[in-house]
Amino acid sequence: MSALASEPSTRCALVDLSHDVWQDMLIHHWMPKPVIHDYISREQSAKFLEGGVSFQQVHVTIAGSTGTILQVPFQFHADGPDLATMPLEKLVDVPVVVIDAVGMPEIGPEVFDGQDDLAGKAVLFRTGQDRLWQTEEYYENTCYLAGATIKHLAKAGPALIGVDSKNTDCGTDQGKPAQHELLGAGMGVLTSLTRLDQLPKRGALLTVLPPRVVGMSSFPVRVVAVVPEGADTEGAGR
What we know:
- This protein is an alpha/beta fold.
- The protein folds into two domains: 12-21 and 64-228, Glucose Oxidase, domain 1, CATH 3.50.30.50; 31-61, no CATH class.
- Helix content is 13%, strand content 25%.
- It has four helices and 13 strands.
- It has helices at 42-48, 136-140, 147-156, 177-184, and strands spanning 12-16, 35-40, 57-61, 69-71, 94-100, 106-107, 122-126, 144-145, 160-163, 188-191, 202-208, 218-220, 223-228.
- The strands form three sheets. It has a nine-stranded mixed sheet with strand order 1-13-11-5-7-9-10-4-12, with helices on one face.
- Strand 9 (160-163), helix 4 and strand 10 form a beta-alpha-beta unit.
- Helix 3 packs parallel to helix 4.
- The relative contact order is 0.23.
């Protein structure tokens, strides 16, 4: 039996950490809603194809910060990598560290107690805000990273930062310190994640691959975690 046909030695679970995106979904009041429509419908294509064959082609108009998104340094720093040039080692098979931040409107540096070696990791903050997805409250009340937390992360050097709320910054802070400093340190920032309670605190691997759009700095993405068989997910993120 070839190596390709053999059974893998370790089975894994795949956890999708992304929200769906659809036509006219609820989003922040200042953003345009997604527009998704056929520019060639199945009915139209059936008229010029033969034998009952048909296909669909879709046109999508969407803001870069719709749904679960990845922000890359170019968003706040013109000399930083955009979606097309973000280093793959920061996006593929990145070891995950889940940080419990439930009930913390301001996420302080005390959440890192006992959490060493964050360099090159995907540090994901579980706030529980994803339970409010598609409600007005999701956009009105959000958790954010405290200044000391931002400094700690900038020094620790993760590859990715992620939250299951809509932002890493306080909505009234127009300096946007988390996004400005963490993106400036070369990290990617993921927002509006979900299902972080299905991950172990450590041991999972994260992959997020945006389209290679030149000159674009954020985009809806599908974020997938690979959880090895036997990983302890009991009380994950708690």
